[in-house]
């Protein structure tokens, strides 16, 4: 890992990102505007690399870009962001739990449909298994 300034393509490649992603992060304030070379190319340094590493890691643990921006703002105010991160993680955990419950219900409905398909057979105008299903009905 180099400590000398790198261009946007090099930094993006290091993190397996598209350069457009870095430009977007800059446009929404997640990354500060980088310095420019004399020829106008963006030049990213060690601080940019560290911040991008944090952003990538925060996304990997399930934080949204808005959440990441909040955490960075807390840190920039000189406050430790860990309490805020705990509340964000609690919210994401609750969301994951809701999704898991919905998926568990959906799995049970699909399983019941599959069992019914063995008993009832196909029939119907196209496929009675799908046409008899309560899934997808409003």
What does this structure look like?
The protein has helices at residues 8-14, 19-27, 46-60, 65-76, 82-120, 128-132; strands spanning 35-36, 42-43. The protein is mostly helical. Strand 1 (35-36) and strand 2 (42-43) form a beta hairpin. It is elongated and about 75 Å long. The relative contact order is 0.07.
Give the topology.
Layout: H1 8-14, H2 19-27, E1 35-36, E2 42-43, H3 46-60, H4 65-76, H5 82-120, H6 128-132
Antiparallel strand pairs: 1-2
Short description:
This protein has 138 residues and is mostly helical. The protein has helices at residues 8-14, 19-27, 46-60, 65-76, 82-120, 128-132; strands at residues 35-36, 42-43.
- Class by alpha and beta content: mainly alpha
Strand order of the largest sheet: 1-2
Counted beta strands = 2
Q: Give the assembly state of these chains.
A: single chain
The share of residues in extended strands comes to: under 5%
Helix content: 55-70%
Q: What composes the largest sheet?
A: 2 strands, antiparallel
- Note poorly predicted spans: none
What is the mean pLDDT? 90
- Contiguous helical run count: 6
Tell the overall outline: elongated
Could you tell me how far the N terminus lies from the C terminus, measured between alpha carbons in angstroms? 55 Å
